[in-house]
């Protein structure tokens, strides 16, 4: 239930106990979108999707239709589904994989049909044991049902889908690292150019890489049409979007809300959504779009949940995870925990990220442990600057991929918004929240 | 259903794809306009324009990966100037590049600071200290002091990646050069990154050793002291090292190397980037073989065998006594039994000058043509010298390359690297004719298998198939080979086809391979051939006439009789015997004396029984050697000789490329250069070689050897001849290839090489260059120009009628060798060679000696099953000659009806395949017996 009256597009059936089964899926309109798509020309399907402003839900927010249109023409092309959701506090694809895997399969086949993919690979985070099981089960059922494989629904269109479990690295959510991993190699992001897998992707062939949630929108778009989709939301941010809400809220969870028409305040405080901060404590800060995103303060709580609106304020909706930090939060500790994550997940390829992440983590830990010096604040900012010159948004980078320049977000936010709190750690030699 | 994607793990990732565009572009760097090739990487274009951009992971011989981020510079783009890695950004028209801005300086400063965060800074005890790119670039571009207070990362160290390579993971900066070399250049992904983030380490996989023959290259290109070699580790400080540029002669490929020494001990060899040859790589045998130079087991004084009455042992003697003993005995035998009764074998480890001196001594002073630098382990000399020759570059850019040789990774390792690179990087189709799988098999468009004895028939089928449509059915690999060749434009004439021709197996007579070569040469008149003979300077020795029926300069004895009679005074009356023939005559007593010039027939001659009978049957045996080899130990007189790094001169590789050797250290004890020994013996036997220095010898070679005309000392001395000169000089288009970028050394690509301008000791002391040579002999005075072969000049003094003879050409008439049919109870023996053998040289290398394996008998499981033998069982192999006991290994890559036993490895406590082979037979058949 959302604040607005928008329909639930991707979570319409998750309240059913058996939402993951083919039976339930078919009983709730499943595969109607695919049947409709197969009755159209592939170009028409692509045009329908291009007509909606379906911004990629994986983090970068690149319009799906445009991504498809960039695919280089070649005899062999691939669709890769990015289900390697691994960022702290991000768990919305997790829900879709476990609770509505058929919707993903249907969306993937619609996409494969529209772009003429030779094969679909679904890369699922290895730790999602149930998700993997359910997706594989759905794939098996889809094959038996004629929705996958040879001559899908008698249309003459054939495509196979392979489910590939990840091996436990956050970096493989980066699309080129994911492709390397799929190819059986170390998950090192590829250097750019080539900038887009759409020209050189999996096994060197043109490849579309789409997020789970992005593709899960397609059945609804096909059934209801682009006009209805575009009627939701505002500007470029049309439709609904999943937000994974966590931190200091009464009702953490995944919520599907209409974009732009809903604000961060709605998400955090509405009784049907976050339900507010427990204990009546004050909001201290919140992360609007995952661990890579610069933080917002209380003054930005009324911003609408729209991609461009958030970008204009110097952050991003990113992976759609919103983390609420109330007045009991130690900012140093929060920045350290996020930095520790990036340190452990840096692939180790580029020097600044490999060495900088660990160095920053050590400094932050030292400050949190009461061993900091006042000069450490400038040092932190300067090391951040060497990872991301200017420490601004959108970030500049000295590395191959954006993991490195994501590291400064939490540190710079913490220091810029709560410099005094850092200094208290230094002066008192102890964390005031301990 | 769609096709399953084909994934080839040997193909490196899609990293490093540079757009290839034709033409040039103009871009600006630091405000200066520069022209570069379109698609060229910025780092290389900038370097040629004189702007050195610091780097660690970039290596000019490998694909860029953009990992270290040291080469970040500001590049103008659609979003304004951004920091981009120069190693990976291709230059574009109008691109504006800034390398000196504050932003660039801060980024480079930052990267260096990051690199040092976890680097131990143990420079004072680090092998790399003093020649370390991290050290040097920290001085040049890095921060003055450290802001890092935390504890550094710790690893246990060092760890042994192999017998030769040790890794200090704390020093490692994760540039990936070693990992990329192993995968990209060597094609062996035996080392890789493990772990992630700042816990990334280079390591081997569990239970998989780093056994690559090329492992030492990873040490050479390591930009820090993370990788060290067991032989060099803690052995010297870089600033104490002296260096000459030289050529490795442990095989005939001719890798250029920087030979470094400290306190008259050779301490290290580093590969020099010679573009047409080794492109900076060395094999481990070449790299670490110098240990034998420093060996305590070297011969350091002449030895003369005592009379039986005095015990009959080899006893130290003076040079005067040893030489007069040899001269007296050889003179007496010549007088009593004629010059033909004296035979000379060996010479492939000599310099060209040494070889010439010995050829002149044997053929002119003594007057015998029983001279052979090959131990019947190669190919007939006329074939090698007479076939139209290809260069290595031509082989690597051929429209199709056909390989009929031993396993090149075992015999000419860096040729394997070059050909592998040609296949993988340039898509050159490679077809091999072989009796078993080789290191090139995975890269071959077709691997046609033949049983020993069928080389010519297989060559005929291959060549025949390209001129007519292939017969249906038959060997599918042969069909694939014919298809690969038929796709090549001009395949009918062999235009663009290069045949690498060597000796696939020592159990298959060289004449059989020669026959196959003749078939191909006749079928493809435009094809060229690259000889794949293995032994050191075998090509130079053959060029210098150390072969029966030949005289210096690739001329036939009969064609050149008048010319050399003028030059030398006398030449042999008739053609002599190859080594196998000589050994037969020595064993039967028709020949009396044997001179072994750096030869160990007991270890290297295919038929060890005959070799033993020959040495024992000879009345008088002389050995000139660096070690007391098993053969030398049976000699009557042993004369100590210097090793390669102890003498100047020239050497010649498989292409005919003549390069200069540098003398780096002084020989131990009383070693004497081989040419001096020949000159002394000549004088004591009443002759005169007429030479007093190697410079004089070279001048004489240039004057009298037709294939070497015009290749003056001056030409060889020029800096532009750094990569050597290919003989003969052509009248058209001999390009002295010289990459501009090699003029300056890239200290980060090849850390440790002091200067590529140092050419080593001059060819002989005290002989100033003849001024008129400078413009006379062919050289046009600048690089890349065509050189004209000189008009006949400097004729021998008394020449009135003698005309400079033509170099031989081949094929001439080839008599087919009759191969006996195989009987169904026998297996036909295949005896290929391995890189690490049980030879005397490797035995003197502490680090390499343990790498030689034991010989096994690899047999198709079908044949093993027939007699109920399983892998691991000991079996007896019995030939008409002898028998030996080895372990059997089932290997279905081995053809049915054949058995593969490595030639140069011991089989447990018995000697290897050499005891099974009968030199006079075209093939060797063995029975497999259970014990």
Structural overview:
The complex is a heterodimer of chains A (434) and B (931). The two termini of chain A are 38 Å apart. Chain A has three domains: 22-230, Rossmann fold (3-Layer(aba) Sandwich); 238-326, Roll (Ubiquitin-like (UB roll)), CATH 3.10.20; 331-428, Up-down Bundle (de novo design (two linked rop proteins)), CATH 1.20.1440.230. Chain A is globular and about 75 Å long. A four-stranded parallel beta sheet of chain A has the order 3-2-1-4, sandwiched between helices. Chain A has 434 residues and is of the alpha/beta class. Chain A has helices at 22-27, 32-38, 42-51, 64-69, 92-99, 101-115, 129-145, 175-182, 212-216, 218-230, 264-269, 307-312, 331-345, 351-368, 375-387, 403-417, 419-428, and strands spanning 78-83, 119-124, 160-165, 207-211, 233-234, 237-238, 240-247, 253-258, 283-287, 321-326. Chain A is built from 17 helices and ten strands. Chain B has 931 residues and is α/β, with parallel strands linked by helices. Chain B folds into four domains: 159-291, 2-Layer Sandwich (Alpha-Beta Plaits); 303-377 and 539-598 and 609-776, Rossmann fold (3-Layer(aba) Sandwich); 381-531, Dimethylsulfoxide Reductase, domain 2 (3-Layer(aba) Sandwich), CATH 3.40.228.10; 827-930, Barwin-like endoglucanases (Beta Barrel). Chain B is built from 26 helices and 36 strands. Chain B has a seven-stranded mixed beta sheet with strand order 15-14-27-26-25-16-17, with helices on both faces. In chain B, strand 16, helix 8 and strand 17 form a beta-alpha-beta unit. Chain B starts with 23 loop residues before the first strand and ends with a strand. The model of chain B is unreliable at 1-20, 731-743 and 756-799 (pLDDT under 50). At the A-B interface, helix 13, helix 14 and helix 15 of A face strand 4 and helix 2 of B.
